[in-house]
Specification:
Number of strands: 8
Order of helices and strands: HHEHEHEEEEHEHHEH
Strand content: 15-25%
Length: 199
Protein backbone atom coordinates (compact mmCIF):
# COMPACT_ATOMS: atom_id res chain seq x y z
CA UNK A 1 0.00 0.00 0.00
CA UNK A 2 2.51 2.56 -1.19
CA UNK A 3 -0.12 5.31 -1.09
CA UNK A 4 -0.49 5.01 2.67
CA UNK A 5 2.42 3.03 4.14
CA UNK A 6 4.66 6.09 3.71
CA UNK A 7 2.85 7.54 6.75
CA UNK A 8 4.82 5.05 8.86
CA UNK A 9 8.06 6.71 7.78
CA UNK A 10 6.95 10.33 7.45
CA UNK A 11 4.25 10.33 10.19
CA UNK A 12 1.99 12.27 7.83
CA UNK A 13 2.72 12.11 4.12
CA UNK A 14 1.97 15.13 1.89
CA UNK A 15 2.31 17.06 5.12
CA UNK A 16 1.26 20.57 4.06
CA UNK A 17 -1.67 19.35 1.96
CA UNK A 18 -2.80 16.93 4.67
CA UNK A 19 -2.59 19.61 7.38
CA UNK A 20 -4.46 22.08 5.18
CA UNK A 21 -7.27 19.54 4.94
CA UNK A 22 -7.23 18.85 8.70
CA UNK A 23 -7.33 22.58 9.50
CA UNK A 24 -10.10 23.52 7.04
CA UNK A 25 -12.43 20.53 6.61
CA UNK A 26 -15.36 20.52 9.04
CA UNK A 27 -17.85 17.91 10.21
CA UNK A 28 -20.71 19.34 8.10
CA UNK A 29 -18.60 19.47 4.91
CA UNK A 30 -18.51 17.11 1.92
CA UNK A 31 -15.04 16.00 0.81
CA UNK A 32 -14.54 14.59 -2.70
CA UNK A 33 -11.49 12.36 -3.16
CA UNK A 34 -10.68 11.88 -6.86
CA UNK A 35 -7.92 9.35 -7.31
CA UNK A 36 -8.33 8.07 -3.77
CA UNK A 37 -5.85 5.20 -4.17
CA UNK A 38 -5.96 3.30 -0.85
CA UNK A 39 -7.49 6.16 1.12
CA UNK A 40 -4.96 8.48 2.79
CA UNK A 41 -7.08 11.62 2.35
CA UNK A 42 -10.43 9.87 2.73
CA UNK A 43 -9.36 8.43 6.08
CA UNK A 44 -8.21 11.83 7.33
CA UNK A 45 -11.39 13.52 6.11
CA UNK A 46 -13.85 11.00 7.56
CA UNK A 47 -11.86 9.65 10.51
CA UNK A 48 -10.42 12.86 11.93
CA UNK A 49 -12.49 15.71 10.46
CA UNK A 50 -15.66 13.55 10.63
CA UNK A 51 -16.85 14.93 7.31
CA UNK A 52 -18.83 13.03 4.70
CA UNK A 53 -16.66 11.65 1.89
CA UNK A 54 -17.27 10.52 -1.68
CA UNK A 55 -14.18 8.78 -3.07
CA UNK A 56 -13.31 7.56 -6.56
CA UNK A 57 -10.65 4.99 -7.40
CA UNK A 58 -10.60 3.34 -10.84
CA UNK A 59 -7.95 0.62 -10.30
CA UNK A 60 -9.64 -2.51 -8.86
CA UNK A 61 -6.63 -3.62 -6.77
CA UNK A 62 -6.35 -0.17 -5.12
CA UNK A 63 -10.12 0.06 -4.78
CA UNK A 64 -10.25 -3.23 -2.82
CA UNK A 65 -7.58 -1.87 -0.43
CA UNK A 66 -9.48 1.41 -0.14
CA UNK A 67 -12.60 -0.54 0.82
CA UNK A 68 -10.63 -2.59 3.36
CA UNK A 69 -9.16 0.55 4.94
CA UNK A 70 -12.61 2.12 5.21
CA UNK A 71 -13.93 -1.10 6.81
CA UNK A 72 -10.99 -1.40 9.24
CA UNK A 73 -11.58 2.15 10.45
CA UNK A 74 -15.36 1.71 10.80
CA UNK A 75 -16.02 4.58 8.38
CA UNK A 76 -18.64 2.97 6.13
CA UNK A 77 -21.28 5.40 7.41
CA UNK A 78 -19.13 8.38 6.41
CA UNK A 79 -17.43 7.27 3.18
CA UNK A 80 -19.09 6.32 -0.10
CA UNK A 81 -16.68 4.76 -2.59
CA UNK A 82 -16.90 4.25 -6.34
CA UNK A 83 -14.72 2.00 -8.52
CA UNK A 84 -14.77 4.64 -11.27
CA UNK A 85 -12.51 7.08 -13.06
CA UNK A 86 -13.46 10.75 -13.36
CA UNK A 87 -13.09 12.62 -16.66
CA UNK A 88 -14.74 14.96 -19.13
CA UNK A 89 -17.34 12.51 -20.47
CA UNK A 90 -19.24 9.39 -19.43
CA UNK A 91 -17.36 6.58 -21.14
CA UNK A 92 -14.88 3.74 -20.61
CA UNK A 93 -11.09 4.20 -20.61
CA UNK A 94 -8.06 1.94 -20.26
CA UNK A 95 -5.99 2.37 -17.11
CA UNK A 96 -2.53 1.03 -16.28
CA UNK A 97 -2.33 -1.64 -13.56
CA UNK A 98 1.41 -2.07 -12.95
CA UNK A 99 2.46 1.26 -11.41
CA UNK A 100 1.08 1.02 -7.87
CA UNK A 101 0.10 4.53 -6.66
CA UNK A 102 1.14 5.98 -10.04
CA UNK A 103 -1.46 4.15 -12.18
CA UNK A 104 -3.28 6.41 -14.62
CA UNK A 105 -5.26 6.57 -17.84
CA UNK A 106 -3.24 4.39 -20.23
CA UNK A 107 -1.32 5.51 -23.29
CA UNK A 108 -1.37 3.49 -26.52
CA UNK A 109 2.03 1.96 -25.70
CA UNK A 110 0.97 0.63 -22.26
CA UNK A 111 0.50 -3.13 -22.11
CA UNK A 112 -0.76 -3.99 -18.60
CA UNK A 113 -4.15 -2.29 -18.65
CA UNK A 114 -7.75 -2.65 -17.54
CA UNK A 115 -10.90 -1.04 -18.97
CA UNK A 116 -12.84 0.99 -16.39
CA UNK A 117 -15.95 3.14 -16.41
CA UNK A 118 -15.45 6.90 -16.29
CA UNK A 119 -18.02 9.53 -15.30
CA UNK A 120 -18.02 13.30 -15.14
CA UNK A 121 -18.05 14.85 -11.70
CA UNK A 122 -21.06 16.94 -12.72
CA UNK A 123 -23.03 13.79 -13.56
CA UNK A 124 -22.20 11.83 -10.44
CA UNK A 125 -22.43 14.73 -7.96
CA UNK A 126 -25.74 16.11 -9.20
CA UNK A 127 -27.59 17.49 -6.18
CA UNK A 128 -24.49 17.39 -3.96
CA UNK A 129 -22.70 20.45 -2.55
CA UNK A 130 -19.03 19.60 -2.05
CA UNK A 131 -16.86 21.89 0.05
CA UNK A 132 -13.48 20.38 -0.75
CA UNK A 133 -12.00 18.54 -3.76
CA UNK A 134 -8.77 16.57 -3.83
CA UNK A 135 -7.61 15.63 -7.35
CA UNK A 136 -4.64 13.33 -7.91
CA UNK A 137 -5.00 11.56 -11.24
CA UNK A 138 -1.46 11.40 -12.60
CA UNK A 139 -1.77 13.94 -15.39
CA UNK A 140 -5.49 13.63 -16.18
CA UNK A 141 -6.47 16.63 -14.03
CA UNK A 142 -7.50 18.86 -16.96
CA UNK A 143 -10.16 16.36 -18.05
CA UNK A 144 -11.48 15.97 -14.50
CA UNK A 145 -11.96 19.74 -14.28
CA UNK A 146 -13.55 19.98 -17.73
CA UNK A 147 -16.20 17.50 -16.58
CA UNK A 148 -16.84 19.49 -13.39
CA UNK A 149 -18.16 22.82 -14.68
CA UNK A 150 -21.18 22.88 -12.38
CA UNK A 151 -19.19 21.63 -9.40
CA UNK A 152 -16.52 24.32 -9.88
CA UNK A 153 -19.18 27.01 -10.18
CA UNK A 154 -21.01 25.89 -7.03
CA UNK A 155 -20.63 28.43 -4.21
CA UNK A 156 -20.30 25.58 -1.70
CA UNK A 157 -16.90 24.60 -3.13
CA UNK A 158 -14.20 26.44 -1.17
CA UNK A 159 -11.01 24.39 -1.48
CA UNK A 160 -9.16 22.28 -4.03
CA UNK A 161 -5.99 20.27 -3.50
CA UNK A 162 -4.70 19.34 -6.95
CA UNK A 163 -1.48 17.71 -8.05
CA UNK A 164 0.16 19.52 -10.96
CA UNK A 165 3.33 18.23 -12.57
CA UNK A 166 4.80 17.40 -15.97
CA UNK A 167 2.45 14.41 -16.42
CA UNK A 168 -0.35 16.53 -17.93
CA UNK A 169 1.79 16.92 -21.07
CA UNK A 170 1.33 13.26 -21.99
CA UNK A 171 -2.40 13.99 -22.36
CA UNK A 172 -1.81 17.08 -24.50
CA UNK A 173 -2.31 19.77 -21.86
CA UNK A 174 -0.20 22.09 -19.74
CA UNK A 175 -0.24 23.16 -16.12
CA UNK A 176 -0.92 26.69 -17.38
CA UNK A 177 -4.19 25.54 -18.97
CA UNK A 178 -5.22 23.94 -15.69
CA UNK A 179 -4.21 27.06 -13.77
CA UNK A 180 -6.28 29.25 -16.10
CA UNK A 181 -9.28 26.95 -15.82
CA UNK A 182 -9.14 27.16 -12.02
CA UNK A 183 -8.58 30.91 -11.85
CA UNK A 184 -11.46 31.44 -14.30
CA UNK A 185 -13.61 29.86 -11.57
CA UNK A 186 -12.21 32.31 -8.95
CA UNK A 187 -9.78 29.90 -7.30
CA UNK A 188 -6.36 31.26 -6.34
CA UNK A 189 -3.17 29.34 -5.52
CA UNK A 190 -1.81 29.52 -1.99
CA UNK A 191 1.25 28.34 -0.11
CA UNK A 192 0.10 26.97 3.24
CA UNK A 193 2.12 27.29 6.44
CA UNK A 194 0.90 24.35 8.53
CA UNK A 195 2.59 25.60 11.73
CA UNK A 196 1.08 29.08 11.54
CA UNK A 197 -2.17 27.74 10.08
CA UNK A 198 -2.27 30.45 7.40
CA UNK A 199 -1.40 31.08 3.71
Amino acid sequence: MLGIVVNIYFRLFDYEDSMFLLHHLKKNHLFIDIGANVGHYSLLAAGICESRVIAFEPIPSAFSKLKKNIDLNNLNGKVKIFNLGIGDENTFLNFTTNRDAMNSVAQEYDSEIIRVGVKTLDAILEGEKPTFLKIDVEGYEYFVLKGAKRVLANESLKYIIIELNFLSAKFGHTNQEIFELLTANDFVPIKYDAKKKNN
